[in-house]
Structures are given as structure tokens and as C-alpha cells.
């Protein structure tokens, strides 16, 4: 028997596990919130910093009735207990930093906020896999450098630069709906 | 700001991608249904056979208002399109059969139905990781052989044998609540 | 410019990280020795017990001029320093127990000696991947149970039982040369 | 019984699977050659382009008696047959592009030649893992951009820029011997 269903798009938010500044926390929260408001699922690496802030923003939006997407945390270790408290679904992997690749594989598009070398590897993976990558250009780190860049010649598009959470998620929606 | 939340337990259902008999399909459906009724999430390998039947049972239970757990499919490949139509959240991995290990890592307990060598590897992984393993002893395959067995001396318990879906999920609940 | 070369076959030896008995140590050493004598590479999980004994036997055979295969250790962690001292090539993975799958992927055939649930998962993976599996039937553990068994119906052959290291490696050679 | 042994350092050469120019092929060959001459093992992703050229240079150096390091190819797929013909030891992984991480995990230092997003992910992983990264700055691609850059603040050193294969391997040797 058929059961009606509809699989939501899933968007990864990638960025530093430690946030250097309060305004980045608010930015990451807003990205999480906008993803839920857009009717999508959020996936992160499940830990602190950008991951936690995005998840918190998503949880708040959902608690406010603004969407019903799932908040997924894909952990490097085996212990669910280290996840931030805003994940609905915690997926331990036991794969160490290889879990970064799984965050990207699990998503339809990737938004990067600030970010160091871990985030850089995630942007590079998403590029290799042909997935849209949106960088919050004002957030510094690798996100501040990659907006507008092509990571190699296999794709004709670029990492998309966004100046706000609203713009970032609008770009994701356009990409996933084939509008661009 | 704190957002109230509660992370559900997640149970994996592992078994053959092709079902040899109609009664196994009904059994796997019932296991999925009971997992949702118990207030837990279901995770499978996202494809056909036991994975699809369990997911269908779970989706039906949820559509009937009997729970709100998430139905997760963790795929070996990169293409979401091959998932069975009952998954809420489809996580491609691109890792081939290594995704079997991720199904186990993602879960708090594993239920096996029938099953060949892939299922055997999943039971062995769950055992290594210290997670409860419940085998539907009447379903044949490795599930029919492993009930009551210790897979090695690192644990003092055994693979738990269950004769029905209801009993299997009751065993999982007892294990996860520390009642046993 | 062409460089003459010949890639050796690579055989995995899988078994417990702790050996319960002295005679198993000698058996695992003999398996490693016979693999080198047969002109093949040895791959193990790089740690102690059966892995170390097989590597020691291989290193001794090579030191005696009986072959020039490479002794490879594929580690679960990131630290080369924990490998046993008989590996020529130490490959850390950082993947935890998922490295078990890589030991199998890296090999053309798998020999199991005694072994608990980790070894069981390796036999199951090798079976899934269509690789010959040889079990030392007198060594106890899962090797003692799997000889002569089919792990599922996808293959028409069986796990091959061997009573000695010489017989085990002869079976591997026959399998890889297509004699069987 | 103790067997004398000495584990060589292992150096990864990462770069594009397709070479845009003849001079890059010669450069990658020279890097492979210098690694063997320095008494180290070479590890690559086992396929064409920079990977094949480096392996060919290494094989040639070894055939000329200039070293005895092992040439390792870590493949994304399961089929050894796709490896370039200069690998001594071919390790299939079945993990798709996640094998890029394994190339880095397997090495003590990473040299990048030209390179697109795959190479970028490898440099980022090596940085995360605290391993020296040397970029051939004249080779274009990401290698041309990363020399002298810090990929984030977790390390106080930089990606080292080298203008020649000889300089690149000299930098690796200095790094691994703690001279820098």
C-alpha cells in the first residue's frame, strides 16, 4: 500500500567548531532558522560552534512553528552524548574526520560560515560531488575567500557568495529548484 | 536560549535486500511498525527487501498516528533516487558496503530479519560496538542461526532471539532502558 | 617509458588481537611465512595477536630469503607507533573498526585464524566481495565454525577449511590461479 | 624472535588525474623519483595524471637502483585493474572519493602538484591532521595558490612552497627529521 510522503531537501551548514565572534553565532543561527523556514532539513557535524548555532536556530524556528524539517548531527565519534542539544537525529559514525565527507554526502547543498581547514575540505568535497556551495562572504575564514571562486575546471559555476542568511538560503533554493 | 527537546532512540533493521518469501515481508513490516509505536526512529540501509518492508511498516504506523519517529535510509551510493519510497531522511554515503557499518553506528540497537553475509557483518559490527542485537529466529538466514549465540567472549550476553516483531521490539526496549 | 613490474597477490590474515594459546601463535606465524614463501604480500590489521604473529612469520621468512612480498599493516587509528614491529608498510586510517573492511578490500583472499566478532565481520565482507575465504578449522573461534559453510546464497562455493598453514596457503594459491 | 626492520617514511603525491601540460608530467615524475631517492615510500591515489607520473618516476628511480621504497596506489574503487602500471602495492578501498582521505592518512607528508578540488581536499585534510604539506608553486592549480598560506589558525606553520621536485622533497625530509 502506498503511503504519501515527500522527501525534503537537506542542507549542510559547515563551519568552525569554535566561534571567534558573537556576530558569527547569530549569523549561523539565522542560517539554521532560514533552512527550516524553507521547509528543508538541516545537517551539521553535530558539535559546537557553527554547527551548534545553526542547529539552535533551526530548533527555535521549528519550535515557533515555522517548519518541520529534521535537524541531523553526524558525529565523528561513537558517543551520541557529545552532540549539541539541538539535534533531533544524532548519527555517530566512528570515522573521525572522514565524517566531514558524510555531512556533504548527506546534503543536497552546503552553506559555509567562516571555517578553517575542515570547512575547506567540506567545500572541496561538495564541489567534487557537484553540489551547490554557498559561502557567507562576510563571515571570514574560508567562507570569506571562496565566494565567487571556481574550485577547479570541472564545473562552470562558482561557489556562490551570500551576504546574509536569507540570501544564502534563497540561493540554495534557487539552485535546488533549477532556477539558476 | 534553551529549546526543549528529546532525542529518540534509533533502531536499525537489517536483512536481505531481496525477500525470499511473503511472510518475511510481513514480519519486517511489523518490526518497522513496532519500532515507531515504541516511540523510536528506524534506520535501515534504505534499499529494498527487508529494508523497504520495515520502512513501509514504519511509515504506515506513523500515518496512523502511532508515533512520530523518523525513518532514515543510509545508502551505499550517492544517488538519493534509489532509496525506497518510505524514508523520510535519505542519507547517501558513497561508501559502498562500508555503509553497513554506518547503519550500525547510527543505531542504538539492531534487529535482524533473515539475512545473508551483509546482515552477518552488521550483527558482528553491532556486537563489537557493544550494541544489543535481536534476531528474529523464525525468519531463517543468519537471524535463524544467531539467536542465543555469543559472537565472542568480549560480551557476556548473547544475540537475543525473538519469535515475533512485538517480542523483538520489547527486547530492544528492555535493553535500552537497562531493564535486562 | 615502460618499467617492468609485476604486482603480487595480497593475502589478508585476520584473527584475534589477543591470542588465547601458544599453538595459535605458531599457527599464525606459519600462515604469514607461507604467504611470503608463495611470493605474495601479507596484509593484516597491524596490531597484536594473530596480526602480529602472522607478520612476524612473514618477516622471518623474508629475512631468510624465502620471498620478497611486502608486509602491510592497516591500522584503525592515526598513530603508526602502535603497529607491531614486523610491518614494512604501516597505513593508519583513522576510521576505527571500519578499517576491518579496508583490510579485506586490500586483499585478494582472506585467511582466518581463530577470531571473534571482528574476524567474523571480515569473513562476511570478503564473502560479499566475492573473495576466497580460508578458515583454519582447528584454530577455534569463528574459523573453527565457518569452514565448509556458505555464508549466503550469492555464492556457490564455501568458506574453505584448512587444517594447516601450508594447506591454507595452497588453497589460496589454487583459488587465485583459477585452479579450483 | 626479533627481526631487524626499519619502517620508511611514506610521502603522498596528490594532483590532478588528468595533466594539462607535458611539463607537469615531468615535474610529477621528478617528485616521485626524488621520494625514492630519499629512501621513502610513495603513496598516490593509484590512477592517472599526477598519480601515474609520480609513480612512473619512482619506479624508474628504483629500477635504476636509487632506492627501495614501495610504490603504493590507494584506489577509490574495488578493481585493482584500473591502477596505473607503476604501483607495487595496489590497495582498492571501495570508498569512492573518501579514499582521498586515506591517501593522506597513509602518509607522513603530502606534496601537491597542480590539482583541483580533490587535491584541495587532500591538502586540507593533511593540514587538519598536522602533516607537512608542500606545494609545487610553479605547477598552477591549487598548488600554485597554497604555497606560503596557513589554512587556518590551528597551526603556526604554512603550506610550504617549493619551486622544484628536489626542493619539495628536501623540505619533506627536513620536516620529517624535525630540522625545521
Largest sheet: spatial strand order of chain A: 4-3-2-1-5-6-7
CATH architecture of chain A, by name, is 3-Layer(aba) Sandwich
Q: Tell me what portion of residues of chain A adopts beta-strand conformation.
A: 15-25%
- Helical stretch count of chain A? 6
Radius of gyration of chain A: 15 Å
First and last CA, distance of chain A: 37 Å
Sequence of secondary-structure elements of chain A: EHEHEEHEHEHEH
Description of the structure:
The structure is a homotetramer of 180-residue chains. Chain A is an alpha/beta fold and 180 residues long. Chain A has one domain (10-176): 3-Layer(aba) Sandwich (Rossmann fold), CATH 3.40.50. Chain A has helices at 22-37, 50-63, 99-105, 117-128, 141-146, 165-177; strands spanning 10-15, 41-44, 71-75, 89-92, 109-113, 133-136, 160-162. Chain A has a 7-stranded parallel β-sheet, sandwiched between helices. In chain A, helix 3 (99-105) crosses helix 4 (117-128). Chains in contact: A-B, A-C, A-D, B-C, B-D, C-D.
Characteristics:
7-stranded parallel sheet, disordered N terminus, alpha/beta, globular, Rossmann fold, homotetramer, 180 residues
Provide the fold topology.
Four copies of one chain form a homotetramer.
Chain A: E1 10-15, H1 22-37, E2 41-44, H2 50-63, E3 71-75, E4 89-92, H3 99-105, E5 109-113, H4 117-128, E6 133-136, H5 141-146, E7 160-162, H6 165-177
Parallel strand pairs in A: 1-2, 1-5, 2-3, 3-4, 5-6, 6-7
